[in-house]
């Protein structure tokens, strides 16, 4: 992804989203803060697969605006730590949810080895070129036997049209291969379960509408919208599809 498109989608729009949620009310924060296509059903699947429970130290890598980590904190009383390289995203998640958050690249996670019980990376792998390096870093920081939960868009078509800037969607065989190379055994994979409830999408849509009315003429906003439109076309036309993955690192 070009720097400007990356900054637009994950930096500036993240700050605008936090501004809009502040105006609309806290019940909008989690739906608007899930920017990697995770529905409540997908989050519940990942939480149960990873056996989250009260006190689980959960790293959310590429946490974005923080909706998924905040959801896990509310529903499962996990102790989340959020990491994202975009300062706009980390300041938005800190403002919205007040959870521990660090601005850092997933290729050099500033945590000690084995220091978290589980990790999520939702909608992140498709934005990273060196997927094996990112997964190896995740494996390093997850305690032995701990779970990795992923939401990944996999490519089903040979060539994708339109292609969102900077994304690299793995094919299913490539996803399986990079997980294996990084030392993870896949326990289970599924397509995204069930539909998103209307009350959730309505709250996310209200935030989106407020951001559009405030920033709709901004170049950065229009670039981010174009990115989302392209991903929407790829999903609706069946060129890419969602995979939820539960994997566990092999013991050395
Ligand atoms: C599609 S968003 C998903 C955000 C969040 N996980 C969610 O589901 O709402 C992808 C996120 O990955 C982050 N990201 C991109 N490259 C990264 C990297 N090298 N390390 C960690 N995060 C990265 C982006 O800043 C962005 O917040």
UniProtKB/TrEMBL annotation:
The highest taxon in the source lineage is Bacteria
Which is an annotated Pfam family here?
Methyltransf_11
Alphabetical list of InterPro entries matching this protein: Erg6_SMT_methyltransf, Methyltransf_11, SAM-dependent_MTases_sf
UniProt GO molecular function = methyltransferase activity
Where does the Methyltransferase type domain start and stop, copy by copy? 59-148
Question: Please, one GO biological process term?
Answer: methylation
Annotated keywords: Methyltransferase, Transferase
Record protein name field = Class I SAM-dependent methyltransferase
Which organism is this protein's natural source? Answer: Kribbella ginsengisoli
């Amino acid at each position: 992804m070009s720097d400007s498109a990356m900054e637009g989608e994950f930096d500036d729009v993240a700050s605008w989203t936090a501004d809009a949620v502040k105006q609309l009310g806290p019940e909008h924060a989690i739906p608007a803060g899930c920017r990697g296509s995770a529905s409540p059903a997908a989050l519940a699947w990942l939480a149960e697969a990873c056996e989250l429970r009260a006190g689980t130290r959960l790293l959310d890598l590429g946490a974005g605006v923080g909706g998924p980590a905040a959801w896990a904190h509310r529903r499962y009383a996990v102790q989340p730590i959020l990491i994202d390289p975009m300062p706009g995203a980390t300041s938005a998640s800190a403002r919205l949810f007040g959870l521990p958050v660090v601005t850092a690249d997933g290729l050099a996670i500033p945590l000690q080895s084995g220091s978290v019980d589980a990790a999520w990376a939702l909608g992140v792998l498709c934005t990273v070129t060196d997927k094996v390096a990112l997964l190896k870093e995740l494996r390093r920081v997850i305690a032995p036997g701990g779970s990795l939960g992923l939401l990944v868009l996999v490519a089903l078509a040979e060539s994708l049209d339109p292609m969102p800037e900077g994304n690299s969607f793995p094919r299913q065989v490539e996803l399986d291969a990079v997980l294996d190379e990084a030392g993870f055994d896949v326990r289970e994979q599924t397509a995204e379960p069930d539909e998103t409830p209307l009350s959730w999408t309505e709250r996310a849509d209200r935030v989106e509408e407020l951001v559009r009315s405030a920033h709709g003429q901004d170049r950065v906003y229009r670039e981010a919208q174009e990115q989302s439109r392209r991903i929407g076309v790829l999903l609706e036309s069946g060129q890419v599809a969602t995979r939820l993955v539960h994997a566990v690192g092999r013991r050395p």
